[in-house]
Amino acid sequence: MPGILLGDVFPNFEADTTAGRIKFHEFLGNSWGILFSHPRDFTPVCTTELACAAKIEQEFKKRGVKMIALSIDSVEDHKNWSKDVMAFNDNAGSPLPFPIIADDNRELSVQLGMLDPDEKDKDGLPLTARCVFVIGPDKKLKLSILYPATTGRNFDEILRAIDSLQLTAQKKVATPVDWKPGEKVMVIPSLSDAEAASLFPNGVTTKDLPSGKKYLRYTQP
Ligand code: BEZ
To answer: InterPro entries under this entry (predicted)?
Structure first.
């Protein structure tokens, strides 16, 4: 079955984009990357999503994350659609600040498991779902999100998840429900109390629980 799992090396595919032909790993360089797919150009939800991504482009840049979008239309369509997207942002005339991959033969969409069987074009062919792939500097898949065509994504959540990925890539911690940068994090279960004490100079606090088990260990990273 096509698709890609967490920890897999992301395929070093070649593709035509609005910024020319790319080889994906070379495009990423040593950066983190985000690839997000869209069902189709010139559709309403997709337009709001791309516009949001363009608006918060600096947030991705700050985090060292290179952005690239994908849909199953041509480079020419992507270029024309990009003008609508920027106009929707009241920024007509400015270029979309990231490339869009033209997957008009659906090759990549099949390879990466991105097609939505419930949404079809007028010829009965499936459209791309709303996938998000976050790729680490080691080119491995760190996070994937898959929404159907009918549900637009939340880019605040995507940035929050990237903050968690980047923190937990550096420190032996995990981020709890609704965590935001600056808040306390959890010590991962595989660390002993002694290891945790030496790794986290800000201290570790434990919440008492009816089970008596000391697994809810918080620290300030
Ligand atoms: C949209 O982007 O609005 C959309 C695209 C395909 C199916 C449903 C909605």
So the answer is: AhpC/TSA, Peroxiredoxin_AhpC-typ, Peroxiredoxin_C, PRX_1cys, Thioredoxin-like_sf, Thioredoxin_domain
